[in-house]
Write a structure and sequence with these properties.
There is one protein chain. The protein has 155 residues and is mainly beta. The protein has helices spanning 19-25, 40-47, and strands spanning 5-10, 30-33, 52-54, 71-76, 79-84, 101-103, 111-115, 118-122, 136-143, 146-153. It has one domain (5-153): Purple Acid Phosphatase, chain A, domain 2, CATH 3.60.21.10. It has two helices and ten strands. The strands form two sheets. Strands 3-2-1-9-10 form a five-stranded mixed sheet, covered by helices on one side. Strands 4-5-6-8-7 form a five-stranded mixed sheet, with no helix packed on it. The longest helix is centred in the N-terminal third of the chain and has 8 residues, at 40-47.
């Protein structure tokens, strides 16, 4: 696709899909949920917005979540994305495996930073507020070999 892709990235919803998140995700080409989903119904709500690629988080241990993979790969244009909930569980060098970006959650801390040519992107937590972390989600913009990230803080 020569026009590129706009992906919505959400994580750590823990069963709460805020109206602000639903509104922000309108018009994306695809949604990535980086784990700690909380319910199958939440994924169904996201699928009404756009196709969803999802990985299971450490709290997604109910029967409905067992078929959701712990890691996954998404390829769009020439960009390879590695999806995992907890970055500490990644046991390889993403640059050596030719990934353009690593999408994760778990920490509830929004972060978009490039290290050694790889974008590490955590959209933060879009669910219940925990600690003093903001409620947030993110967007990835993909065109050709380029991927950039944007964090959107709500409260």
């Amino acid at each position: 696709m020569s026009g590129g892709f706009k992906l919505g990235v959400i994580s750590d919803t823990h069963g709460l899909l805020r109206p602000e998140a639903v509104s922000a995700l309108q018009g994306v080409d695809q949604i990535i949920h980086a784990g700690d989903i909380g319910s199958l119904e939440l994924l169904d709500e996201l699928r009404r917005i756009a196709p969803v690629k999802v990985v299971r988080g450490n709290t997604d241990d109910e029967k409905w979540a067992r078929s959701i993979p712990r890691t996954d790969i998404l390829v769009l244009d020439e960009v390879r994305l590695f999806l995992i909930h907890n970055l500490a569980d990644m046991k390889f060098d993403p640059r050596a495996e030719h990934f353009s970006a690593v999408i994760c959650g778990h920490s509830h801390v929004p972060r978009s930073e490039t290290r050694d040519g790889v974008l590490f992107f955590n959209p933060g937590s879009a669910g219940p507020r925990r600690f003093r972390h903001p409620v947030a989600l993110g967007f990835l913009f993909i065109r050709g070999e380029s991927v950039t990230g944007e964090i959107r803080i709500f409260v």
